[in-house]
Amino acid sequence: MSRVGKRPIPVPKGVELTFKGNEVIAKGPKGTISRSFHPDMQFNLEEGVLTVTRPTDNKMHRSLHGLTRALTANMVQGVSEGFQKVLDIVGVGYRVQLAGEKIILQVGYSHSVEVSAPPGITLQVEGTNKIIVSGIDRELVGELAAKIRAVRPPDHYKGKGIRYSGEYVRLKAGKSGKVGARK
Asked: What is the C-alpha to C-alpha distance for residues 89 and 155, in angstroms, rounded to an integer?
């Protein structure tokens, strides 16, 4: 039995779940999100606890069981609390500024890079070197944060670039060939 799939999902107060065939619609204080799942997966909502069950033990149903439960739990958490990723910009002269719905990155290129957020995702800037990506869809938040990080990933020699908050960047030593060489 799937360890992830059989865990119940507590549904907090203020979150309303609606099932239409194989589509699940979650509505909460942060917004509404919907997603279609495989028609074989079954949902049971009893007394504020949602469980996902599978019809058989064949390989396909076992693999879909944990996936369906995890995606549904992310929907419930997204509409109740939301998700956010924090990115730090490290480097002399590297900075970010908010311009309406998009951010403008100046990270060592000859030009500035503009990144705009898809609908449902908000971008915030703290100071000149911190970006906060937040929204109710975990996939979109993570995808946009990865897209911003990919503009200038952390350099492993100097540590400059855009990194997730709390990410450890292991610095390399660099060249050391001429230090003790003789002619």
From this structure: 12
pTM of the model: 0.87
105, two tokens: 């990155």
DSSP annotation of 71 reads H
Q: What is the pLDDT of residues 34-91, one digit of tens each?
A: 999 999 999 999 998 999 999 999 999 999 999 999 999 999 999 999 999 999 999 9
Strand order in the sheet with 161-164: 121-126, 130-135, 83-90, 161-164
Beta-carbon contacts of 112 under 8 Å, excluding residues fewer than 6 positions away, are 104, 105, 106
Question: Is 135 in contact with 143 (CB distance < 8 Å)?
Answer: no
Q: How far apart are CA 44 and CA 92, in angstroms?
A: 54
Contact 114, 104 (CB under 8 A): yes
3-state secondary structure of 140: helix
176 pLDDT more than 90:
no
